[in-house]
Write a structure and sequence with these properties.
By secondary structure, the chain is an alpha/beta fold. It contains nine helices and eight strands. Helix 1 packs antiparallel against helix 2, helix 4 packs parallel to helix 8 and helix 8 packs across helix 9. The radius of gyration is 28 Å and the shape is elongated.
């Protein structure tokens, strides 16, 4: 695995250990409180001259001691988990260090190869060839876009959500998007395929079968990876997919999507590569975004698209919705596009003339 993958796993393991340590502290505090209460009850019994009062206080002391013993057992159980997490943390830290060293060495080897290749290449000839290829690609791309635009069809939106540890409201976001589209002017021209516990198989099947114009991902990510779910019922760390592998999956179709939306933390670093190699338009987040902010942006964005707004206007509308609500993440969603397209004039939902 890559250093980023190990780094993400290490971060999650540290959070698990911290949560377990908190539990240990809570149960130790509870144990101390119960033992103090037991001692207090025994002291009261020793001072009392009433046999009934003495008996009552002694029974209370026994209950408090039993509760203290239960709390002590729970504290010991969580302390064992702390030790296990610490061992796993150390192992991941070691693997991370080795992965970082290996990636640094690989990067240096790549740099040397590229330098040698550049020295052997004639710069003028390379530039000339690249320019001719770019001009040809733009002509072909323009022709294909015109042909596809000439066939009126419903806008197909593939909603992929993944929260393997159950910490994100994926279902809430997909429901909000569907509700926003159903209330829009051109709701009959939009079709949604929502997959709230998306695996990598859902990604490939959705691309091949549904042939979406828009691929929307909600979940965890960073600048180089995306986390999908595994086909398991219990909470789990998830299936880590590199940005390169995700882009390859999106591209593995005769009709690549027109827009990819990564509604997940630190995903903006991935969108430039997407618009260069896969799709004309892409949206990502420049930093960590709150769950509520991500939901509000997505709902307003798709509402604007279904109302016949351009991609740029829908994006600005989503940002405005966050700012009007007083939310702090309005500047995090970022729109990128290829050089030969204009988001201000691209409208994805058009009624037939």
């Amino acid at each position: 695995m890559s250093a980023n993958q190990y780094r993400s796993q290490l971060d999650r393991k540290r959070k698990q250990r911290a949560a377990a340590e908190k539990k240990v502290g809570e149960y130790r505090t509870k144990e101390a409180d119960k033992r103090a209460a037991a001692a207090k009850a025994r002291a009261a019994a020793s001072r009392s001259n009433s046999p009934s009062s003495v008996s009552m206080k002694l029974r209370e002391a026994e209950r408090r001691e039993a509760e203290a013993n239960t709390a002590a057992k729970e504290a010991a159980k969580w302390q064992l988990k702390v030790s296990e997490y610490a061992k796993e943390e150390a192992a991941l830290a070691s693997k991370l260090s080795k992965a970082e060293q290996a990636e640094t060495a690989a990067a240096e080897r790549r740099r040397k190869r590229e330098q040698q290749r550049a020295q052997r290449s004639a710069a003028a000839e390379t530039i000339s060839v690249q320019r001719r290829l770019l001009a040809t690609e733009r002509l072909v791309s323009g022709a294909l876009k015109e042909l596809r635009a000439a066939r009126p069809e419903h806008l197909r939106v593939l909603l992929l959500g993944a929260s393997s540890e159950g910490d994100l409201r994926i279902g809430r976001e997909q429901a909000r998007i569907r509700k926003a589209v159903e209330a829009a002017l051109h709701r009959d021209l939009v079709r949604i395929d929502a997959r709230p516990s998306a695996t990598t198989a859902d990604l490939l099947d959705g691309i091949a079968q549904f042939r979406p114009h828009v691929v929307h991902f909600s979940g965890h990510s960073d600048d180089q990876l995306i986390v999908f779910e595994e086909d398991r019922d219990e909470p789990h760390p998830g299936s880590i997919v590199t940005a390169q592998a995700f882009a390859a999956a999106i591209k593995a179709t005769d009709d690549p999507p027109l827009l990819v939306v990564l509604n997940s933390c630190n995903s903006a670093a991935q969108i430039d590569n997407l618009v260069e190699t896969v799709t004309p338009f892409a949206i990502g987040m420049t930093d960590e975004i709150n769950d509520g902010d991500a939901i509000a942006y997505a709902a307003q964005f798709y509402a604007a698209l279904a109302n016949g707004q351009s991609i740029r206007s829908a994006h600005l509308s989503g940002q405005a919705a966050l700012e009007l609500a007083g939310l702090t993440g309005h500047d995090l969603p970022t729109l990128a596009h290829a050089a030969d397209v204009d988001p201000a004039t691209t409208i994805l939902v058009k009624p037939p003339e």
